[in-house]
Specification:
Rossmann fold, 12 strands, alpha+beta, 2 domains, five-stranded antiparallel beta sheet, 8 helices, 19% strand, three-stranded parallel beta sheet, single chain, elongated, Alpha-Beta Plaits
Length: 319
C-alpha cells in the first residue's frame, strides 16, 4: 500500500516502543501470577513470545511446529498446545537490528518482528507456568500474556473538565469553517487549531490510521475522506491484488472479524476519525483538525471497546 512516510514512521516507532518495554519488563524479573488479576485483564491461555533471532521454526514430523533449539522443544512438549503461529510472518527483516532515534530523542533497536510468536494452550490454567518456563530459557527475549486493553468509554466526573470561557471561538481567525456544529467544538480553539488554520488546513498527502472500534465509512462527514486502496478496488474479487496479505482490503481491515469491512459497531472510532479529519467547510456536521487528510479505518477493538495486544499490534503493523 502507498502510505505517507510520516504515518509509517509513527506506527513503526510504536511497534519498537512496545517491543522495548516488553523486553525491559521480562528482563527485570520472572513474571508471577498476581491472584488479584482478573481473567478479563488478558486472553486466557494465550502467550506472546519473542525468541532470539537465532531461533528458527519448522514443521515437526508429527505435525505442528518444532524449533531448532532443543531446550525450547523440551519446554513446549510439557504442554498441550492448541496453536502456534508467527504473529508477523510478512514483516521485513531489512531494518532489524538497526538503531532508530525518535523525534523525542529515544533510541531503539529495530526488533525482528518475525521472531514473535503467539501460542494458545489447551489448558488456560497452565499459562503462567509456561511463561515462567520460557522466561528462564536464554533463547527467549520475553514471554507474556496477551493483555487486554480498553478504550476509555467512561464520561469524566462532573467538574473534571471545565468549559468555562471555552465557548468563545478565536475572533481573530480568518479561516472559519461553515460546519453547523463547529461552534460547539470548543476544544479546537483551546488547542490552537483554529488559529493554525490561517497557516494551513492540512495536506492531501497525509494519511491518518484510526486503530479503534472501526469507522463508519458511510458517514456523510467521512465518506469522502476514507482512503481507498485502488489496487484492490480495481482488481479481482477474492484476490490479494497488492500482495500485502489482505484480500480485498479496499478501505482498511477488520482485525476483530478478520474481514475487509472495518465498520464501527461502537461509535468511538467514528468519533475519533471525525475529530481528526472530518470533511470540513462543507456545511455538514463538524470540522476536522486536518481538512485534507485521508482516513484509514483499522478495527482492532471489539464493540465493547476491548482489544488484546496481539490484535492491536497486528493493526499497527498493517498501518
Amino acid at each position: 500500500m502507498n502510505k505517507s512516510y510520516l504515518s509509517f514512521i509513527v506506527c513503526f516507532s510504536l511497534l519498537i516502543q512496545v517491543a522495548a518495554v516488553a523486553q525491559e519488563l521480562s528482563e527485570a524479573s520472572v513474571l508471577q501470577h498476581d491472584p488479584a488479576m482478573q481473567k478479563s485483564d488478558f486472553v486466557p491461555g494465550v502467550v506472546l513470545i519473542k525468541f532470539r533471532d537465532s531461533v528458527q521454526a519448522g514443521m515437526a514430523k508429527g505435525g505442528g511446529v518444532e524449533f531448532n533449539v532443543a531446550s525450547l522443544n523440551r519446554i513446549l512438549q510439557n504442554y498441550s498446545l492448541r496453536a502456534v503461529r508467527q504473529l508477523f510472518p510478512q514483516a521485513s527483516t531489512e531494518l532489524a537490528g538497526r538503531s532508530i532515534t525518535t523525534y523525542s530523542g529515544y533510541t531503539y533497536q529495530v526488533p525482528n518482528l518475525r521472531s514473535i510468536y503467539k501460542i494458545e494452550l489447551e489448558d488456560p490454567d497452565r499459562m503462567f507456568a509456561l511463561i515462567h518456563d520460557l522466561q528462564r530459557d536464554p533463547n527467549v527475549v520475553y514471554a507474556e500474556p496477551d493483555y487486554i486493553l480498553s478504550i476509555d468509554g467512561k464520561a469524566p466526573p462532573a467538574g473534571a473538565v471545565s468549559r468555562e470561557g471555552q465557548g468563545n471561538l478565536d475572533q481573530t481567525a480568518n479561516t472559519v469553517p461553515n460546519d453547523p456544529f463547529f461552534g460547539q467544538q470548543w476544544y479546537l480553539d483551546a488547542a490552537g487549531v483554529v488559529a493554525a488554520w490561517d497557516s494551513t488546513t492540512g495536506d492531501t498527502t497525509s494519511l491518518i490510521a484510526i486503530l479503534d472500534t472501526g469507522v463508519d465509512w458511510s458517514h456523510p462527514d467521512l465518506v469522502d475522506k476514507i482512503w481507498i486502496n485502488e489496487a484492490e478496488l480495481n482488481g479481482l474479487d477474492g484476490v490479494d491484488d497488492d500482495g500485502n496479505g489482505f484480500v480485498d482490503d479496499i478501505r482498511g481491515w477488520d482485525f476483530i472479524n478478520h474481514d475487509n469491512d472495518p465498520m464501527d459497531d461502537n461509535s468511538h472510532g467514528t468519533h475519533v476519525a471525525g475529530i481528526a479529519a472530518a470533511a470540513s467547510n462543507n456545511a455538514v456536521g463538524i470540522a476536522g483538525v486536518n481538512w485534507q487528510a485521508r482516513i484509514l479505518p483499522i478495527k482492532v477493538f471489539q464493540s465493547s471497546g476491548r482489544g488484546d495486544v496481539s490484535t492491536i499490534t497486528e493493526g499497527i503493523r498493517y498501518a
